[in-house]
Structure formats: structure tokens, C-alpha cells
Amino acid sequence: MTVPGRRSSTFSRLLRHGFTDPSGAERLLDVPDLSALRDDPVLLDALGATADPDLALRGLVRLVEAQPETERQTLTTTLLSAKPFRDRILGVLGASEALADHLARHPRDWESLVTYEAADLHPGVAEFEQGLAEANDAVSLRVAYRRCLLAIAARDVCGTTDVAQTAAELADLATATLRAALAIARAAAPADAAMCRLAVIAMGKCGGHELNYVSDVDVIFVGEPSEGADEGKAIQAATRLASHLMRICSETTVEGTIWPVDANLRPEGRNGPLVRTLSSHLAYYQRWAKTWEFQALLKARAVAGDLELGAQYIDAVSPLVWQAAERENFVPDVQKMRRRVVDNIPAAQVERELKLGPGGLRDVEFAVQLLQLVHGRSDATLHSGTTLDALAALAAGGYVGRADASQLDEAYRFLRAMEHRIQLYRLRRTHLVPEDEADLRRLGRSLGLRTDPVADLNKEWKRHAAVVRRLHEKLFYRPLLDAVAQLAPGEIRLSPKAAGQRLEALGYADPAAALRHLEALASGVTRKAAIQRTLLPVLLGWFADSADPDAGLLGFRKVSDALGKTPWYLRLLRDEGAAAENLARVLSAGRLAPDLLLRAPEAVAILGDPEGLKPRGRDHLEQEVLAAVGRADDAEQAVAAARGVRRRELFRTAAADLIGSYGTEDNPREQDPGALVDRVGEAVTDLNAATIAGALRAAVRAEWGEELPTRFAVIGMGRFGGHELGYGSDADVLFVHEPREGVDEQEAAKAANRVVAEMRRLLQLPTADPPLLIDADLRPEGKSGPLVRTLKSYEAYYRRWSLVWESQALLRAEPMAGDRELADRFIELVDPLRYPVEGLGDDAVREIRRLKARMESERLPRGADPTLHAKLGRGGLSDVEWTVQLLQMQHGWVEPGLRTPRTREALAAAHAAGLIPTEEAQTLDEAWVLATRVRNAVMLVRGRPGDTFPSQPRELAAVGRYLGYEAGHVGEMVDDYRRITRRARAVVEELFYGA
């Protein structure tokens, strides 16, 4: 008798044995049919050893109650007397609610777990076929399938089989099930069966002999006519049989379903015929198949139907699989496939995804398959469809480091075991780790974690996922270093041929040169070589993710040669997580940024500073430049210092632009291309203005000391004035001066002209730094007019001679350097010209349109494609800017928002004022931003300015990557450009030409 208020001894024992609801368990043990078991310590020990003792006990009660009364004692006696059976049945009941349901519906199926012969331990296809032999329809097939599944689960949860053996047994059961389903289909349509030969090829995890408990079974069907049959009718018959087979397995009946049979890996996917002849398959694979389809065929295995035909199919496609790495598009396909495909996982589920999430099963499978494709063409030992077998073969052949392979094997087994136990619970197809505490507890205990199941499970899972995440990229690159490094005795290295094959597969155009660079960087016993050996596997991956891996690796070698003895450099790359990735992105994205960096490699420090990529403002830059000029001994030294600052800032701007455009592992790609364009335009304008201010100060100091005899200002024009400079833009300017009090006008003019000539000379001196070209062709009278004018001279000219194009050019006028008060008075002078009261007259509008039409016909370079020229082509920069500028001149006098030198700002103001509808404004803005980015991309990639897409494929691919297009999508990029600019041109025709 239990004393009130005190727990019974049974309650305490149940608690100790892992029950979470001891009171409920006590009530269940009081069921009359379990009275004989209630106090048996053997039963409690066995229940306590299960994943979920409460679940196991509830399942046991249901199973006992489902027995005919005459059989109940047989079950309880067997349970107490036969330990193997007791462990099996309770193990299943404690791990799978779904199989407990099956046993409750089919109470005699427990007997299948009693026998313990050698054949029961590791059954194959023949044993499973025997287990399904009596099934003659979809319902009886499901019952027999579950009975076989019960035995597999029992061996699994008891540890009789490991995770790989369990997956192989599940694949063998699927093979037997497909054969049984085909037999049922053939029996239902004997005429169809007689007319054709039908082979079922397993793909995916079933083909790879590594199936899950609940998974789609991927198949391909191959058909041929029987002797004397018409081919067309035979394929129709085979299609009916295949469709019936799929329904038998997939449809939901009173006994549920087995699994979906998925034939979407067939040629042309769901759009292609369900059954093809062998010759039709081969014709498709030889002509149309993509790299991923050959990757899928790695796992192809003939499993059912006409096995002779299936073997012919495998023999025919296998050579194509191992030649895939020699295909023209293999490298871009690989680059695309290697990028993680997590975009389709809901954000809330990414961290719980066992299969597709970071460090998940797909990472291991994909890495192994890719290495098989690269090296399997010359090594038949790698021709396995099973992930773990292939991983072992890769390690044995030296294609993967042994330690890396061992860690990956362990991690993959753990993650697959998690996946199996999660699916086994309710026999549902899922790859998500549960969130519920009870589910996590059961999962942890099922994997042998008994002390603190939930905490230990999370810890082990995260540890293994981290190993996969770290090694999945390293798998590709570590052996490349081992190929050129000193290895420990007994280690196997990649041969030079195999290393070259791998580098080619990763996109390196010159594998021999790449190996020489790796040898130079990684060989030796210095601290530098040791750190670089650690860094290079990761860097090689980032380089391979770009359009020009060779340039990235060569650039890294040059930077390391220049800075390798500088302690902070290697420390920066080793310790600052972002610095190494940022450097890799910058070095492999084109010529401009590496050229700027290699002229002063210490600028690499910018890449490791969290604030390093943010542009410095005009005031900050001007202060730094003027201070450097003040310290210099002469004008040339002063401007050299100013140009050094400009080079550093150009690198900062280009690096920020590239990293923002490519994105990094921690920071995704900038989604607003307009923001990138604005940042570049503002930053380059500011640093050029500061450089000109420095050159002006240096020129004045060299001849006149602190003060020029005339007040002097530099007015920015064109893109300079509009804060829209690109990397390769000249600085369009006007020079204005005003003699100081008491200074002769001629003397003042001579001084002003001399200072301009000296500034231009200093800024174009041949040095390691890029020159800054000053263009004053927008001045009154153009090249024929004086280079410098007084404010009064400008006033007289504009009052009397000014043409409408000059007023239009003045829309971009903005003070940039020199005497600010004089510059402001110049702006006051030109405001009435650029924003005329009452707007433009009809004659002026006609003149602007005439000039634009003439420019289109005369200035476009000969042979240039007008649909792809970013500046002068259809819907390009000129089209958008002239349209916006016409609106500014017509309405700027009444709309203050239009009085800005910036194109996008003026366009937004025109929209806000109701002058352009929303859709048209967005169309013009999109085209202008895209055309600007194309020009920036060309300069970044080629290192010299250009207004149209490069013709060289690798450069074109690099422009595509900068613009956000994945490898292999340059055609799509060019099509998008034409489409966007075509729409913009339609708006221009309407708004500018009045069409």
C-alpha cells in the first residue's frame, strides 16, 4: 500500500528508467493483460533502453490489446523469455509511432521479429522479394512492405546494422517493391506486358543504394518492343505499365501509401515522354543533356523489369558520365552547381535543415559527386553510386586527404542517422530537425545520448555540421596544395595530371601556371608558408567562384611577394575573417582594382577594417590632400602625394563596389544597384575634387606662395559636376578667375593660365598612379575659346553669344575647388540660363532635339551596336540624360527640386512634380543605372574605359558576375540590357521627341 503524499516505488523506478510520465505509465502497467509483466525488472530495463519509454509502453499496450485473447499470453511470454525479440519489438515501439500503428492494425506481424537466424541479420533483395511474394494488389503490397520495414527498423534501432547498412537494406526493399509493383501491373495488362520490354532504372538515393526511410524513389524507364512488335505501340504499352507501377506505389489506400515514384530525372523532365527506347535516351544525352543530368546518372542502377535491357542502358550511359568533365560548359555548370542552393528554404527553416542547410548532407554528397566526375574519367575505382564508398575510394586514391575523409565519413553517418530517426517516428518525408523538446529528447536517446539528450544532440549536430561546412570546400583545394608540398610518409598525393584536371574543373585556364603559383606560395618551412597553406584552400574556392580564377591566384602571389615579410599582412588575413574573402573577391574580379593595389600593396589593410570600405567624405579627403601638399618640398612631390591619396581612394571605392556587387559569405550582395552607382559616383567625384584642390594649392605655392594674384575657382561640369563620375571618367571643368584688387587684368589672366597649365601638367605626369585628365572643352567657344575667363567675361559671353547647348551643359555646373565665394557667384550667373524663366521656347526645344538627333547619327563609333552602346546607344545614358535635362530647362524655374546637377535626383523630382508617370520614371532610372554599371564594370574588368560589352568571353563573364548574373548567363545579361534600354528608348521617344 502506498502512503498518501508519497510516491510509489514503481513511480520512482519508472522515473529512473527514463519515463517522462511515470503516473501514466503506472496506469498502463495496471492493464490486466500486462499484470504478469508489471513487476518484471527485465521489461522495465528493456523499456528504459528505448528512445522513448512512454511511447514504447503505449505501443506495447495497444499491441497486446490488439491480439486475439488466446494469443496474448504467447506474446507476453515471448516478450519475457526472448531478449533479441524483446529488444527489437520495444526498440521499434519506442522509436516509431507509425510502426506501432501498423502493428495495432496487423497484430500478428510481431511474429516476423521473433526469428533470429543469420539470414535475418542482413537480408538482401531476394529475401525482401520473398517477403513481398504473396502481395497481389496495392493494399496487400503495402502491408507486406510495412512488415519488411518493421524488420529493417528493428535491426536499425538495436544497432544490429549501421546507418549505411540500413540505407542499403531500404534500397534493396525498394528494389523488391518496384519488382512486385511491376508484376502486379503486368498481371493486370498481359497484352501490354507481352508487347514490350520494360527496364526500371533506379536513380538518386535508391540507385546509390543509400535510401532513407521515407523518400521519393527516383526512376527512369527504358522500353523496347518485343520481337515482332511495332515500336510505337510497344512504347505506348510500356508507358501504361510504367504509369500503373507508379500508381501502385504512390497512391493512398486504406493502408496509406508506400512512397512516391518520381520519374522527373528522365530526359526533358516532366515534359518528356515517360518511357523512351535506349537509342532515344542516348540521342538525348549525346546532344542535349546538361552537366547536372550526368551527375544524376552517377547513381543509375538497373533494378526491375528487363534486367538485360537495364544493363545495356547502364553500359551505354556510363562512358558519357565519365566524359562529362570534358564538355564545353562543364566549368560554368560546376561553378553554378557549387553555389549553395538554399534560396528555396524558408528563412525560418535554414538552421533546422539537415539536408540542404549549411553543413548539411547535400554538401557532402555534392562535393563527393563533383570529385568523382572530375577524376573518375581516368580512375575507374571512383565509379560508385554510394556516397560513403565513393568517399573512401577518393581517399584511397589521394584525391581527398585521409583525415578529411575520415571526419566527413563520421559527420555524414551522424547526419544520416539523425535523418533516419526523424523520419522513422511518423514515417513522413522530412529533413527538418524538430523543435519540440519531447521530439528532440526521443531523437537524442535514439542516437545513444542518454545523459542530457537534448543538449548533447544539439551539440553533436552542430559539431558535425561545422565539420562538413569547413571541409566541404576544403575537399576540393587541400589536395592541390598537398600535390606541391612535402607530405608525411605514407600519404598519397594528387598526380600533376589529376591536380591539373581539378584546377581545370574549377575554372583555371592555365592549370600548370596555377600549380607553379601554389608551389611558390605554399612550399617551405617559414611561418609565411605555413599560414598561406592554411589560407589557400579557402582562397582557391573564392577565386574559383569568380570569372577569372587565374588572375586571382596570380594577384595573390604578387601581393604576398610584396608584403609577405610584413608581419601585419599575414596576421590580417589569418585573423580578420572578412579580409581574406574581400581580398579574393577584389583580386579575381578584373584588372583595375588589383592594378591599383599592386602599386601600393599596403592598401590591403583597408580590406580588414570594418570601416575600411566606407568612402571618405570630400572634407576629410581635401584636408588630407592639402596637409600632404603642405609637407612636400616642391610641386611635383606635392601632387605625387595627392595622386597617391587618389589611388588609395580609387582602390577603396572599387573594392567596396566589387564586394557589394559580389557579396560575401557574411554580407549578401547589395540588392539596390542604384545605391552602388550613387556611392561610386559620389566617391570618385569627391576624391577627384580633392585631388584637383591639392594640385591647385601645389601650383600656386610653387610660383606665388600662399596667394595667387587673382581669385580662382574650378567648376565641375558633365559627370564631374553631376557627382556621377565612373572609374575611367575625365574631369570636365570650367576655370573662372577674378583679379584681386589692384592687380592688372593681363597679369591676372597670365597667372590664371599658368596655374591651369601647371595643374594639368602635374596631374598627368607619368608615375605609378593613374593620371587625372582635365577636360575644359565645355567652355565658351569650345576648344577655340580661352581656357580661363574672368567672371565678367563669362557674363558678357553668356548674355550675348550663348547657345542653347551651352545652357544645357551648365545644368551640371557645380563648384569643385578654389575660391568658393567666386564659384557661388558663377553659379548665380548661370542659373537664369539653365533654368530660364517661362521655360524653353519652341525654337530652343527644336534645336535641342536636332542636336540630339545629329549626335546619335554622327558620334556613335563606326561598327558599334546601337543596342549595346551604354553612352550613345538606344536607351543609354545620353537618351536618359537629355530627356531629364530638357525637363529641367522647361520646368526648373518653377520646380526647385529640378535644380540639381544629379540625373537621378532630377528624375525623381520630375516624377514628384507629376512631369513623368511612375512607370516611365522607373524605366528611365533602371536604364540609366544599368548603363552606368556596364561602363563601371568594363573599367573594373579591363582596366581601361569602354562603352560597350567586352567581346572576350572571360571579360564578358566577369562583367556578368559584377552585374549579378551567375556563370553561364551572359546571354541573359545581354538580352536583359537590350530589353531594359529598349523600353527606356520608347519613353524617350515620347517625352523627349514628343512622338
- What is the helix tally? 44
Distance between the termini: 101 Å
Instruction: Determine the mean pLDDT.
Output: 91
Q: What characteristic shape results from the CA principal axes?
A: elongated
Q: What is Rg?
A: 38 Å
Helical content class: 55-70%
Can you tell me about this structure?
- With 995 residues, the chain is mainly α.
- It is 61% helix and 5% strand.
- The strands form two sheets. Strands 1, 2, 3, 4 and 5 form a five-stranded mixed β-sheet that branches.
- Helix 4 (53-66) crosses helix 6.
- Residues 1-6 have low confidence and may be disordered.
Can you describe this structure in just a few lines?
By secondary structure, this protein is mostly helical. The chain is built from 44 helices and ten strands.
SSE arrangement:
Layout: H1 9-16, H2 22-29, H3 41-48, H4 53-66, H5 69-81, H6 83-95, H7 97-105, H8 118-121, H9 125-131, H10 138-157, H11 163-188, H12 190-195, E1 196-202, H13 204-207, E2 217-225, H14 231-250, E3 261-262, E4 275-276, H15 278-287, H16 291-297, E5 301-305, H17 307-322, H18 330-338, H19 361-375, H20 387-396, H21 402-426, H22 437-446, H23 453-482, H24 496-505, H25 511-522, H26 527-544, H27 549-563, H28 567-575, H29 577-587, H30 592-599, H31 618-631, H32 635-662, H33 673-704, E6 710-716, H34 718-721, E7 731-739, H35 745-764, E8 774-775, E9 788-790, H36 791-800, H37 804-809, E10 814-818, H38 820-834, H39 842-858, H40 877-891, H41 903-912, H42 918-942, H43 953-962, H44 970-991
Parallel strand pairs: 2-3, 2-4, 7-8, 7-9
Antiparallel strand pairs: 1-2, 1-5, 6-7, 6-10
Helix pairs in contact: 1-2, 2-4, 4-6, 4-7, 5-6, 6-10, 9-11, 10-11, 11-14, 15-17, 19-20, 19-23, 20-21, 21-23, 22-23, 23-26, 24-25, 25-27, 26-27, 26-29, 27-29, 28-29, 30-32, 31-32, 31-33, 32-33, 33-35, 36-38, 40-41, 41-42, 42-43, 42-44
